[in-house]
Write a structure and sequence with these properties.
- The protein is α+β, with helices and mostly antiparallel strands.
- Among the domains are: 38-215, no CATH class; 349-391 and 486-574, no CATH class.
- Helices cover 32% and strands 13% of the residues.
- The protein has 16 helices and 23 strands.
- It has helices at residues 38-45, 56-61, 76-82, 148-164, 166-177, 182-206, 219-231, 278-290, 321-332, 349-362, 389-392, 397-404, 430-443, 463-477, 505-508, 564-574; strands spanning 54-55, 101-105, 116-120, 127-132, 135-140, 216-217, 250-251, 263-264, 270-271, 295-298, 314-317, 385-388, 406-408, 416-417, 422-423, 427-429, 454-456, 459-461, 481-484, 518-521, 526-527, 532-533, 542-545.
- The protein has a 3-stranded antiparallel sheet with strand order 1-3-2. Strands 4-5 form a two-stranded antiparallel ribbon.
- The two termini are 17 Å apart.
């Protein structure tokens, strides 16, 4: 699209802090041209996928935890601090919430038709923003520089204060109930306590060994723990030996080209080849379950001798299947951002030609070149390159945790596992159980024999045959590995490596022992020279220590031994992708 920095979202006029010098007079608007219209952008930002953090009216009324303060948790002073992107009020965002915060409404088929909840959309984690020489630029589909864990901790603390601090509860109940009477007030307090208990369990079970900081979260751990421990009702699955320590944060991946990939996720564990069928839909349902989606599992009955009398477990979720399919279709039309040449010209053609040769000789084996017009073709096909740990040698924690996780099957024991075409035992791999839950959400149950099709969002799907791709991907991911992909738009996606442990592309091209051992994240100032983020210490920034497990910045030695002049040429060429 033509990115409307001053029209779609008047960020500069709204007073967001700007970094760097003033842009050249000839460069009034930085245009990243990512293929979306203003309407598509706003729809992606504010379309519910079924995430439900708490009732919507609660979130609007919730004050910060400080007993002396009446500042709302949703006040821009807080959401800016968390790193979420401010957005003005609009028809799709009537209360002026940040990008990716949305009102989710229960459907007529649910327990409380019309009840409103606050939740997240894909955009909360997959919309980036950069300050480039005085202009705040939105990178559609880019990694968010948000601190999810800070937001969740402070929101839970705020809810706890609303329950326990009399003045806060009084103000809160008047806003939520309008004219509260004693029975209604008592009922509200009980509901608040129940939600607080649920969120506190999430905090306790997912508390990281070290803070993640901005732009990262241990995504698989959050999803696994929520589904395996809370939704299945098996608390032991949140503890050793079934749950590793929460210390494998990954950067929010950029999502352009995602629907066109054959495999997705940092470790290539999710097949994606069937557009809007089991692959992408399963991936997106799993993401919803990890980010406040609701899931109720009704155990089946298992009668070994009279198996025909057995009933499968049933799954009911808040995930909005139709919206998820439509969101995936919208992402298909997203392009990678182009370097803003109108403001910051590229290097001379001779330099770029030399850099291209360096890329072809050193990078293209793993990172395929995606050139125009293929880059903007919705039907482009991208094959992921998977590198085992011995080849990429980056921090192994995330890939190893995924490969090694097992769990008690709880209410799934004895039910039919489509992936393995046999009954679940008492223990299975974490990804096997998660996939069963996701399939249960999509199909309603796990009892779908081979050859029987089901209509999902108007699309006929054969569950058993389509799961063959999942089985291959999951078996391969049992050998810990990480995915390499085309680098179009890479300039706008710092920090780098899967765990965000390197602040700039130039740092990534330096030997391991020369990379910054400590740097600071949380700012948005773009480094035009090194290509990445300015990572200097400043108030409110997070100190990123690469000596901690999960944060290691070693590995990816490709290109680190090139002569300096070749590295410079390569860096200039990377801006063109």
């Amino acid at each position: 699209m033509t990115l409307r920095i001053l029209t779609l979202i008047p960020l500069v006029a709204a007073g967001l802090p700007l970094a760097g010098a003033t842009a050249p007079p000839a460069c009034k608007v930085i245009d990243l041209n990512q293929g979306w219209t203003a309407a598509q952008t706003e729809w992606f930002w504010f379309t519910s996928q079924g995430s439900r953090l708490m009732p919507y009216s609660w979130f609007l009324a919730l004050e910060v935890a400080d007993p002396a303060s009446q500042t709302l948790i949703r006040d821009r002073s807080n959401t800016d601090r968390y790193g979420y992107i401010w957005a003005p009020a609009s028809a799709l965002n009537p209360d002026g919430l940040p990008v990716g915060f949305v009102k989710d409404v229960e459907t007529p088929e649910e327990a409380h038709p019309g009840q409103e909840h606050i939740g997240f959309t894909c955009a909360a984690c997959h919309t980036g923003s950069l300050d480039i020489k005085g202009q705040r630029v939105i990178v559609e589909g880019g990694p968010a520089l948000a601190d999810f864990w800070m937001f969740l901790n402070e929101t839970v603390a705020a809810l706890r204060a609303a329950v326990t601090v009399p003045d806060k509860f009084s103000r809160f109940s008047k806003k939520v109930l309008k004219n509260p009477d004693p029975p209604a007030t008592a009922g509200l307090r009980a509901q608040m306590q129940a939600k607080l208990d649920d969120l506190q369990t999430r905090l306790t079970q997912n508390s990281p060994s070290n803070p993640f900081g901005y732009g990262r979260v241990d995504a698989f751990a959050h999803i696994f723990t929520r589904v395996l421990a809370q939704d299945l009702g098996v608390p032991a699955n949140a503890q050793p030996p079934y749950a590793p320590k929460i210390l494998a944060p990954v950067s929010y991946p950029f999502i352009w080209d995602t629907p066109q990939h054959d495999l997705v996720q940092w470790n290539g564990s999710a097949p994606n080849s069937q557009l809007l069928q089991l692959g992408p839909l399963g991936r997106n349902v799993g993401e919803v379950l990890g980010v406040f989606g609701e899931l109720q599992v009704t155990p089946g009955t298992h009668i070994p001798v009279l198996s025909f009398l057995s009933t499968p477990p049933r799954f009911k979720s808040s995930a909005k299947i139709q919206n998820l399919m439509a969101l995936e279709e919208t992402v298909r039309t997203l392009w990678s951002p182009k370097w803003p040449q109108n403001c910051f010209p590229l290097a001379p053609a001779k330099t770029l030609a030399r850099g291209e040769q360096v890329y072809i000789q050193n990078c293209v084996q793993c990172h395929a070149l995606l050139r125009d017009p293929e880059r903007t073709n919705v039907n482009r096909k991208i094959k992921a390159q998977l590198l085992t740990l011995d080849k990429v040698v980056t921090d192994p924690t995330m890939a190893m945790n995924f490969a090694a996780r097992t769990a008690l099957t709880g209410p799934l024991e004895g039910s039919f596992d489509l992936l393995k075409v046999r009954e679940f035992g008492s223990v299975a791999t974490g990804h096997q159980i998660l996939l069963a839950a996701v399939n249960g959400v999509i199909f309603g149950s796990l009892n779908r024999p081979n050859g029987v099709q089901i209509k999902v969002g108007g699309l006929l799907v054969n569950p058993a045959t389509q799961l063959a791709g999942f089985e291959r991907a999951l078996q391969a991911s049992r050998t810990p590995r990480y995915k390499a992909r085309p680098l179009n738009g890479i300039w706008a996606t710092a920090p780098y490596l899967h765990n965000g442990s390197v602040p700039t592309l130039w740092d990534l091209l330096t030997p391991e022992n020369a990379r910054p051992p400590v740097f600071y994240v949380g700012g948005h100032e773009f480094d035009l020279v090194k290509v990445g983020l300015v990572a200097k210490e400043a108030p409110g920034m997070f100190r990123f220590d690469t000596s901690q497990k999960g944060n290691w910045n070693n590995g990816h030695k490709f290109g680190t031994e090139l002569p300096v002049d070749q590295k410079k040429d390569l860096l200039e060429f990377l801006k063109t992708l």
